[in-house]
Amino acid sequence: MSSAAIPSRRRFTALFGTLALVLAAAGCGGGTGSASAGGRVTSITALDYYTDTTEHAQWGERLTACGRAAGVTVEHRSVPGASLVPQVLRQVSSRTLPDLLMLDNPDLQQIARTGALTPLDRYGVDSGGYAEGILSAGTYRGKVYGLAPTAGTTALFYNKDMLAEAGVAVPRTWDQLEKAAAALTRPGRYGMAVDANATFEGTWQFLPFLWSNGGDETRLDSPQAAQALQLWVDLVESGSMSRSVLNWTQADLHDQFVAGKAAMMVNGPWRISELDKAGLHWGVAPLPVRVPGQTLVTPLGGEVWTVPQNSSAARQRAAAKVLACLNDPENMLALAEQYHTVPSRTAVASRYAREVPSTAAFVKSVQRARSRTSRLGVEWPRAATGIYTAVQAALTGEQTPREALRHAQRTATGS
Fold this sequence. Notes:
Elements: E1 34-35, E2 41-48, H1 53-70, E3 73-78, H2 81-94, E4 100-104, H3 108-112, H4 132-137, E5 139-140, E6 143-144, E7 146-147, E8 150-151, E9 155-159, H5 160-166, H6 174-184, H7 200-212, H8 223-237, H9 250-258, E10 264-267, H10 272-278, E11 282-285, E12 303-306, H11 313-326, H12 329-339, E13 342-343, H13 346-355, H14 360-368, H15 380-395, H16 401-413
């Protein structure tokens, strides 16, 4: 997983305004794969945002192996995360889309709406056995257009030695979280750390607190939403959480945690390999909920692979075979082990949790994780902007949580 994207590999693409509906589904041409003199497809193209040298090479090897199984060579290209969607939209217009396209899952609906993608049932790709949120993330208007081999979400990392020294248990509720964070705070160390920066990553981190308390991005001015934001405000105002969270990224949270400057943090499984190298005694648990009995709901992270429209049905079928290969149980498990993510099929995920106990909290949360576009679809970016703006306004004291979220609601609805 690349550090450029949301949670390590994953990137929040801020797409503001209205995207033009540039092509109808049947009108797309393009694709730059090649065929033999007899018309047999010999190669296809694949595009993603895995620009990290190591990660690009690793995905290249996997695509090559799946291409071999499908009888084609895969020409693999990566572009920076922030450039992917704009480039894809240009390719939609010029009919030069790749044969196989990876998208950050919140971007799928934006691209599917243009008619640039093909439904996977056209090729008989198996979409059974996936967690509900993962399948939802790849679905547009009732059709599955993308599948993710693995997924991720957030949980609570904690320093076992610090909790033992302070005599506090792993918090399960917000009240316990506040008390534990206060007890863990020392000169040079904060009890709790979150990413509250003014990006979609800040929104991502706030969503579990919003959703698990019954809040919803369709009603950001609800009392449940205000309670969630008040929790973060209270943690900062009490001194249990640094005001620097307004600028921290998830990578910064990791650094603070490893340096012993934060006893607990919200982060994702992609941090596990680096934490293992740091020599800390750490643990991970599901994020606390406001009161016992509430169901924890976290946001779903992960990239989906899609088959764009082009003029060659043969290339589309070949691309679909490669996509199916990437999503077979063997590759899911291998990718999860490689990047410390969660296999998308529930049976494979359960096996993974048994084999790698440190991922159990994430496996459990992914089963109930929610796609960020599940409520608002293509309107999600506007709500996400309203959320992180509200968080910033409340944590700086510019507005109360209720005032900030009322403004966010107006942003989300465009009124």
